[in-house]
Design a protein that fits this description.
Layout (H helix, E strand, L loop, with lengths): L9 H31 L15 H12 L23 E2 L7 E2 L1 H8 L10 H8 L2
Antiparallel strand pairs: 1-2
InterPro entries: TAT_signal
Keywords: Signal
Protein name: ATP-binding protein
């Protein structure tokens, strides 16, 4: 018999109520203790000059070291796999002219290229990002 179809007994209800009561009491006791610990550090002010000592050049240098690797990450995580939904193209050829297709634009991404490898956006991103 499934548990939802089992008849409810008074003993089961009593155990459920007792468990919920103990859980609520524990949450109230431990929650009040956590609130008291958090309130201890509220009255400690920071020195007034602690926020004015910021080296802007060092902050920008750190930003450059953090952002530069992002330009080398592979844009398409499924590139060079058989299940890449972006690796589809459409092409056409009219008479004796050279064939034209969408792969000229999408190959940079679908072959595992990064932001720095893109023809227009790559140099632009490298010049704008630190």
């Amino acid at each position: 018999m499934a548990s939802h179809a089992a008849p409810r007994t008074s003993r089961r209800s009593a155990l459920l109520k007792a468990g919920l009561t103990v859980t609520a009491a524990g949450a109230a006791v431990f929650g009040a203790g956590a609130g008291a610990q958090a309130a201890e550090g509220v009255g400690v002010p920071l020195p007034p000059d602690s926020l004015t000592r910021v080296d802007g050049a060092a902050a920008l240098e750190g930003l450059g070291h953090g952002v530069a690797p992002l330009t080398r990450l592979q844009l398409d995580p499924l590139a060079n796999t058989g299940v890449d939904p972006l690796d589809n193209g459409l092409g056409t050829q009219v008479a004796d002219f050279k064939p034209v297709g969408t792969n000229l634009v999408t190959d940079h991404v679908t072959k595992g290229g990064a932001l720095a490898d893109l023809p227009v956006a790559g140099p632009l991103a490298q010049s704008l990002l630190p």
